[in-house]
Design a protein that fits this description.
The structure holds two protein chains of two kinds. By secondary structure, chain A is of the alpha+beta class. Chain A is built from ten helices and 15 strands. By secondary structure, chain B is an alpha+beta fold.
Chain lengths: 372, 494
Amino acid sequence: MDLIHPHSVPDVVETLREASARRRRLLVAGGRAHIDKGNPCEVDAELWTTMLDELVAYEPAEMVAVVGAGMRVGDLARALGEHGQEWPVDAPPQATVGGVIAAGASSPRRLSVGAVRDTVLEVELVTGDGRLVRSGARTVKNVTGYDVHKLVVGSLGTLGVIVRVALKVRPLPALRRTVRAPGGPEAARGALQAVPLPAGVLALPDEVEIRLEGWPERVKVMQRNWIGRSEGALIRFAIEGLDAELEVFTTRPDTIYGATFMVIAPEHPVLESMARLRPAVEGRGVLEMAAELSAENHRAMLVPPGCAHGFLTLEPDSLVLYFVSAAHDPARERGVRWNDPTFAIAWPFEPRVVSARDRAHPDFAPNFHLAA
Amino acid sequence: MEASTRSEDRVARAREALEEVLGPERVLADPLALALYARDASMVEGGCALVALPSSVDEVVACVRVAAEHGLPIVPRGSGTGLAGGATPIGEALVVVTTKMDRILEIRPEDRLAWVEPGVRNLDLANALAPYGFTYAPDPSSQQTCSIGGNVSTNAGGPHCLAYGVTSNHVLAVDLVLPDGTLERLGSEAPEAAGYDLRGAVVGSEGTLGVVVAACVRLTPLPPALRTMLFDFETVEDCAATVSAIIASGVVPAAVEMMDRGIVVAAERFAHAGYPTDAAAILIVEVDGTQGAVEAQSRAVLEAARANRCRSVRVAADETERALIWKGRKSAFGAVAQIAPHYHLHDCVVPRTKLAPVLTGIYAIAERYGLVITNVFHAGDGNLHPLLSFDRRVPGTLERVLRASEEIVRLCVEAGGALSGEHGIGLEKREFMPLVFTAEDLTAQACVRAAFDPEGRMNPHKVLPAGARCGDFAMAFGQDAAEAAARLPEGAWI
């Protein structure tokens, strides 16, 4: 099967004119996040929109972003996030803007942020026979003519190729919280009535998830209203070596027989004291985690301050990009050798190439490595 | 229908058929009634042959069938408050008025939806929902009079659409009688129906795709707290800059409304809202949400206004004062009658960062044509309502107004704007459509219309400019299908 990867809107127009004249059937593909939706069909070629990823116009004070339909949702989120704004769809980062619109894939926060269709202000579409059609306007409000762009939302690529769109964006909420509680659809119904203006209430078979967002005070009030209505127990866990306690609220204290690990929010105040505690517990166990990063899985890793990290490339000619959050200071740089006995890392295989400097790191010694 | 049939006969027979269904009292044909229904709230005057006032879905279906049988165009009409001529009939039309269908069919607070007939008035619906802790968010200034059917047809807006979105965001489904008399439900009670969003195409289609006979609307929870503030400024520029500063600060208030001195003076004389009549412009800002959200947003709004030299701030102390502040705003269009007997109201939308330069340009145009212009509008979403006041009995005045109007429209389009934000295109603006759309864009729109109404019988002459045709739908204009197909490249898929 052929792959067509147009670079520009005129490219798409040309492609579709030709395909139409030659009666070739095309499947429009973006980030492939929703490619299995709709009826499977036999096609002669795939048309990929991912090169149409231009940020055409974005004026934050306007809260309107005009983008190429092939732009990745993750890239758009970054561009908008720099100005404290978001396109509220919550699609996977590798999904494309055009794909989300074609699939009509709304956010679980739809209750408060609205459906995808409410955020699409203008669409430029190349029809099957290669005509470029624009509908809507780059303004937040508009009733000029028929809303052809509304028909495109959820049309799964059957009306043409979405090439460019104007989106209504919104300020990122100042605070977000997710509350999970036992129950099911019935509990969700209760939550909808008890919590003022939730962003979303998701009912799972035996759980309910309530998404809260907005201004700090507002979220806290919503959280209080919900938690205040739940019956349960506040359990305090002592922390060894520290004069502090972790408070945990649960609606199911009967399920707790012990705790193997605890997850703490990154802004929890106890973290600072625990970080200071680390040298004291050194030697009693080191937390270790690994993940595979690849161009295909679009993953990245955030290494928190105070943690060591290492990369092992799995293929020839791998390209690794990394950013550091502070200026580099050679005097304060410390390194751990890949085969340091303190950590005894179980690499999937022995590294073939290690730089001379990294090979020469001394064995781990707290007063050297943690002193910087 | 035979071509030789004389038109009076057709109308007479249609009238007879309609009277059989509706009874003679709900079919109007006397000259006074025909003159009353020959226009809406716009400047355009048309004419019609018959007026029908059905009170049920079945009766609407019967009206549409009678019109089809006797070859009469159909013009659906709600309360007639439209400002673009969307409900102004032309030629030998049958006007189907839906104001007798004014029942709220059901309110389901748990599902956050309500089913209503098209003639239900906007404010009546909001009032009926209030005891349940909900409202219907779109609130056009004409909300005491305008109907939900009309709101759906024009995709109506209102001050509170800034935070809550326009009518389309609040309509889940519509029941539509198509031009051939079939009844279709488009959309569903679910937040989003699967398949093509035909509901979305019908909302805002100005009665050209069918007659809306019921709507399923979304209920919006009434905010636990809100605060209404009134700011005044010494210059229009500072006032407009405050709007941009508020939006840029990350706050989306429930409403941001701007009024300039001319309209403030007129509204104050009428509403006695305590507006500062010596200010160049005032800004009404309403924020809502939980108490904490209201506090945080108020602080940001105040900061934005102070940074742009606001002269004073008035915060509504209670519901009575809030209602008074809004009364002045919502009755502004009535109050302008004190300036001159006629007005021409615009509805352009511009990017909100362009408000100040566009307003300056509009004042310059009015001055050049020697016209009185006032501005009262939804500043938060860039939706301008320049209002030209005049006396059309003075020879030459109407021509000057129309020329100034065209310049205002062109100015807004050049600033990156759209022709209409909430009133619609109707008859008034259809010839401006090529300013913002290419021939291909308009063809696509004509195709959407032809898919619903292949014979072009629903509200003809509206929205699309003369000459916009759907080439792919040979049926639409009586051409032979084979002939139309021959114009396409061989084997091309359409």
